[in-house]
C-alpha cells in the first residue's frame, strides 16, 4: 500500500513537471512569457538596485501598459534587478509577495495597492527590516505616513472632477440621466473618481440614477451595462471608471440597438489604446487620461531613496484629457 | 415517475420563478422581449446568452460528478481556450477570414481536449483523487494561459469570431444556440442510450460495475475529456463576448458556479444519479441571480452577501432532510433515499462564493 502511495506521489510530481513543459511549448505560439522569474537576493554592494514590485494584476489595458513601462525601465542596463510579481487582484497575494521581498532583503519595495486599507502590519514589517517602500498608482489609507517614502501616481479625485466638469460644460441644462460603472469596490481609483465626478456634477441638472461595480473589467462592464439598459429606459450618459468597462458598455449598448456616443454618451478615464481608438471612432465622447508610464518616475525615486536623498511624499503625474477630435490627432503617436 | 421527476425539479424551478417575479416587480417590463435590428432583445435573451458558458461547463461537471468525481480545472481551461484562440487571431495577418477563425477555434478546442484527456488520465489510469488531479490544472492552467498571452490582455477585432459571443442566429444569441444545442445532444445521447445508466453505475460503485462488465475506466476518462472540451467551448464564448483574453479573470470561479448549478439541480456530489435538466435550471438560476443584483440595484458592498443568502435558501430547500420535513408536513411519503444524502448541500454551500 505504501508503495502504491509513493508511486502515485512520484507520478503526480511528474505530471506537474510535464505540465510546465506543456506550458512552455504553448508559449511559443504567442508572445513572450510574463515577467516573474525570481533569482537570489542581491546585495547593494554591486551598485545594482534590487527592487521588488508587486503589481495588482493584468485586469485592464492600462495595467498592461503600466507593467510594460516598469519592466522596460527597471532593467539591468539601467542598474536595476527587478523582481516582479502579479497579485491577480488579491490583497493576500500582494502581502505575501511583499513579505517574500522582505525575506529576500531587497533594496526597495514598490507596489500598487489593490485596495486602500489593511496594509499597516506588512508595511511595519518592511519598516522594521529597513526597506523603503514606494507606492505607485494607488495610495494606501494609513494614519502613519512614515510607512512609505513616496507615492507616485495620478490624482484620481481630479480625474473624476475633470470628467464631471466636461460633462457639465457640455450637457448641463439638458436634464441628463447618467449611470456609473464603478471600479473594484474599495479600490482608491474607484472611491476617488466617484467622489470627484459627483462633486463636479453637483449643482448641475445631471442626475446619477444608478451605480454598480464593473470591477474594472470589460466582461463585467458589459453585463452590468446590460442590466442598466434593462432597468432604465432613459439613460443618456455612462461614466465608467476605466476604458475597459466603457468598452464593455459599448458592446451592451450596440446589442440593445442603440448607437454608443450618440444615443448614449460615454465618458471614461484611462486613455489606453483601445479606448482612444473607440474615442476616435466616435463611440466614446470624452476620456480623461491616467498616465500609466510610471516606470521612469519610479526608477528616479528608487535611486534617490537608496542614495539616502530626500524625496517628495507625493508625486502627481500630469494627466491630459481627450475629446474625439484630439484623440484622432493623438492616436498615431501614442505609446500605449 | 414523472411526478417524482417534477418533485425533483420543483425547488430549483421555484427559485427561478421567485427571482423572475422579483425582477418583474422591480421592473414591470423585465420579461418583455422586443425585436431590435432584426434580433430578439430583452432581459430573458440576455440571461440565455450569459447562461451559455456556465451551462456548458456545468454540463461537463454533471457528467464528471455522476462518476463520483469533480473537475476543478474548468475555470483554468476556459482561460487557456480564450488565450489560445485570441493569440492565434492576433498573430494572424487576417483575423477576419473565416479560415483563420476556424483554425483558432480548432486549436483552442484541441488543446482543451488534450487538457481534458490529461485530467482523465490522472484520475482513471493513475487513480489520483479527482479533486487533487484537477487541482493541478486549476492552478497551473492559469499560468499556462498567462504564458500564452504574455501576461497581457489580448484583444483583437475579428467579425466572425465575435459572432460566437454576441452574434444572433434566427433572432437568438449564437452563444445560447451553441450551448443549448450541445446540451440537447448530450442529454439525448446520455439518456436515450445506456450511457447514462453506465455512468451512474460507475458513480455508485466503480468496483461492482467493473466486475459486472462496465468499462468504468474508459467511461471516467471520457467524462473528463468531455468536461475539458465543453470548458474549452465555454472559453471561446466568453472570450468572444468581449473579444479579450484575460488570463487572470476569464472563467474565474466558474468551477464553483458550475458545481453550484449541479447541486441546485439536484445532483448529489457523492456521484451516481444525475439530473441534466436540473443542471440546466441551476445554470439559469445563477445567471438570473446575477442579473437580479443589477435590476434590484443592490449595492456592490452587499452583493456577495445577497447572493450567498439566495444560494443558502435554495440549497436548504434542496436538502433531502429539509424536503423530508416539508413532505412529512404534507401528505407525501418519504422521498427516495440517496447515497449520503445529508452531506451534500452543506459541504457545497461553503464553496459557493
From TrEMBL, chain A:
<dbReference type="InterPro" id="IPR025997">
    <property type="entry name" value="SBP_2_dom"/>
</dbReference>
<keyword id="KW-0732">Signal</keyword>
<dbReference type="Pfam" id="PF13407">
    <property type="entry name" value="Peripla_BP_4"/>
</dbReference>
<comment type="similarity">
    <text>Belongs to the bacterial solute-binding protein 2 family.</text>
</comment>
<keyword id="KW-0762">Sugar transport</keyword>
<dbReference type="InterPro" id="IPR028082">
    <property type="entry name" value="Peripla_BP_I"/>
</dbReference>
<protein>
    <submittedName>
        <fullName>Simple sugar transport system substrate-binding protein/ribose transport system substrate-binding protein</fullName>
    </submittedName>
</protein>
<keyword id="KW-0813">Transport</keyword>
<feature type="domain" description="Periplasmic binding protein">
    <location>
        <begin position="53"/>
        <end position="310"/>
    </location>
</feature>
<feature type="signal peptide">
    <location>
        <begin position="1"/>
        <end position="26"/>
    </location>
</feature>
From TrEMBL, chain B:
<feature type="transmembrane region" description="Helical">
    <location>
        <begin position="168"/>
        <end position="190"/>
    </location>
</feature>
<keyword id="KW-0472">Membrane</keyword>
<keyword id="KW-0813">Transport</keyword>
<feature type="transmembrane region" description="Helical">
    <location>
        <begin position="47"/>
        <end position="65"/>
    </location>
</feature>
<keyword id="KW-0762">Sugar transport</keyword>
<feature type="region of interest" description="Disordered">
    <location>
        <begin position="325"/>
        <end position="353"/>
    </location>
</feature>
<keyword id="KW-1133">Transmembrane helix</keyword>
<feature type="transmembrane region" description="Helical">
    <location>
        <begin position="135"/>
        <end position="156"/>
    </location>
</feature>
<feature type="transmembrane region" description="Helical">
    <location>
        <begin position="72"/>
        <end position="90"/>
    </location>
</feature>
<dbReference type="Pfam" id="PF02653">
    <property type="entry name" value="BPD_transp_2"/>
</dbReference>
<keyword id="KW-0812">Transmembrane</keyword>
<feature type="transmembrane region" description="Helical">
    <location>
        <begin position="250"/>
        <end position="269"/>
    </location>
</feature>
<dbReference type="InterPro" id="IPR001851">
    <property type="entry name" value="ABC_transp_permease"/>
</dbReference>
<feature type="transmembrane region" description="Helical">
    <location>
        <begin position="102"/>
        <end position="128"/>
    </location>
</feature>
<feature type="transmembrane region" description="Helical">
    <location>
        <begin position="219"/>
        <end position="238"/>
    </location>
</feature>
<protein>
    <submittedName>
        <fullName>Simple sugar transport system permease protein</fullName>
    </submittedName>
</protein>
<keyword id="KW-1003">Cell membrane</keyword>
<feature type="transmembrane region" description="Helical">
    <location>
        <begin position="295"/>
        <end position="317"/>
    </location>
</feature>
